[in-house]
Design a protein that fits this description.
The complex is a heterodimer of chains A (118) and B (110). Chain A is an all-beta fold and 118 residues long. Helices cover 0% and strands 52% of the residues of chain A. Chain A contains no helices and 11 strands. The N and C termini of chain A lie far apart (40 Å). In chain A, 40% of the residues are buried. Chain B is built from no helices and 9 strands. The N and C termini of chain B lie far apart (34 Å). At the A-B interface, strand 5 and strand 10 of A face strand 3, strand 4, strand 7 and strand 8 of B.
Chain lengths: 118, 110
């Protein structure tokens, strides 16, 4: 069964940086695009970023563009999200999710909590 | 990148059917066949229910049904069960090669 395990969350001050990781297993990671989706406490889901299977194309939500960078290491089956210039409104649980090749976001990790607070 | 519009809440009794709407624009829902629906129970990760407007992944109950008309997609749940009580989100691929989610709908089974 596909497994996605996020890590790297924690408490960071406004203006700070954090890098999230998503370790993938039990599927061919290099063959799938991957997403980051976040959920602020008590709020709905917000799509954050997508990276193609080979890393050649990346797309971002306007709310994180120029502050967040998505990347991947296919040799290590790991997805990353580098978050810079963090704001209080970035406080959320961050999920990584597999893009099911035009079949929706078909597998999700359990999420990692990022809290931006002084 | 405005969120798709969903009702904040819907409710129904066991055995009844309910429909959750998801309204976007011609740049997302209306112009895309990549509309999907997700179920989220409290404290849990979202789960894919419907993809490509009306297709169910293997293992998803056939009492979940997706459809689309113009800029509005819909999720119908027939024969409501207690375990269907959850939050439901729609999502769509957009003409900007991004994705957008709906604001979410809380389903209460009375």
């Amino acid at each position: 069964q596909v497994q996605l395990v996020e890590s790297g969350g924690g408490v960071v001050q406004p203006g700070g940086s954090l890098r999230l990781s998503c370790a993938a297993s039990k599927f061919s990671f290099s063959g799938y695009g991957m997403h980051w989706v976040r959920q602020a406490p008590g709020k709905g889901l917000e799509w954050v970023a997508f990276i193609r299977f080979d890393g050649t194309n990346k797309y971002y939500a306007d709310s994180v563009k120029r502050r967040f960078t998505v990347s991947r290491d296919n040799a290590q089956s790991t997805l990353y999200l580098q978050m810079n210039s963090l704001r209080s409104e970035d406080t959320a649980v961050y999920y990584c999710a597999r893009d099911g090749r035009d079949k929706g976001l078909d597998y999700w990790g359990q999420g990692t909590l990022v809290t931006v607070s002084s | 990148q405005s969120a798709l519009t969903q009702p904040a809440s819907v409710s129904g009794s066991p055995g009844q059917s309910i429909t959750v709407s998801c309204t976007g624009t011609s740049s997302d829902v209306g112009g895309s066949n990549y509309v999907s629906w997700y179920q989220q129970h409290p404290g849990k990760a979202p789960k894919l229910l419907i993809y490509d407007v009306d297709k169910r992944p293997s293992g998803v109950s056939d009492h979940f049904f997706g459809s689309k008309s113009g800029n509005t997609a819909s999720l119908t749940i027939s024969g409501l069960q207690a375990e269907d009580e959850a939050d439901y989100y729609c999502a769509s691929y957009t003409s900007s090669s991004t994705w957008v989610f709906g604001g979410g709908t809380k389903l209460t089974v009375l």
